[in-house]
Specification:
The chain is of the alpha/beta class. The chain contains seven helices and seven strands, in the order βαβββαββαβαααα. The chain has a seven-stranded mixed β-sheet with strand order 2-3-4-1-5-7-6, sandwiched between helices.
């Protein structure tokens, strides 16, 4: 069993924020692989299904970014999913817009959603970091991540979402380097 987690904030005005790119990836996975209808469970919106003969759960935590770990812990305890079978999709300021980096474990690098997950389940899970770039000018990081993607970025995120779903078999097999290079070379 695998658990895909997309990080974001659940309010309607957050839907197109840079911070919500994880939600967008989960929506794309749900659609591409015809996972079940989203149901509110475990303090999140949960879908289930099979991808390449692997049982998959996908969730968008409704606990807000800074408390994402609460939702994840409840779910993995209930379904007895090992942390190493959790794959989290989230925004990353340190990567240029559109770049993808997948890794296992590591630090939160100041990302509050990742810090919350680390606190509740430890650090032994995979992360798919989706580059949103750094803010230009005087804007604060906290304001930047809560801004909506502009029109060009929105089209870019749609392409990235498609590229991720097309390369998902590498993620399922936990071939993180191959996954990253496959997505970045599309």
């Amino acid at each position: 069993m695998l658990l895909f987690v997309g990080l974001g904030n659940p309010t309607p005005d957050s839907e197109n924020n840079r911070h919500n790119v994880g939600f967008k990836i989960i929506d794309s996975i749900n659609k591409k692989f015809s996972l079940s209808k989203q149901k509110p469970k475990f303090k999140g919106l949960l879908t289930t299904g099979n991808i390449e003969n692997e049982k998959v759960y996908a969730i968008k935590p409704l606990t807000f970014m800074n408390n994402s770990g609460i939702c994840i812990r409840e779910l993995i305890e209930y379904f007895k999913i090992d942390a190493e079978n959790v794959i989290v999709f989230h925004d990353d300021l340190d990567l240029e817009f559109g770049k993808i980096k997948a890794k296992f474990g590591g630090s939160s690098a100041g990302h509050n959603g990742i810090a919350s997950i680390d606190k509740f389940i430890g650090k032994d899970y995979s992360r798919v970091r989706i580059g949103i770039g750094k803010p230009e000018g005087e804007i604060e990081v906290s304001d930047y991540v809560l801004q909506n993607f502009n029109e060009d970025e929105t089209m870019g995120i749609e392409k990235i979402s498609n590229d991720i779903t097309e390369s998902i078999s590498f993620l399922i097999k936990k071939k993180l380097d191959l996954f990253s290079s496959s997505v970045n070379n599309k």
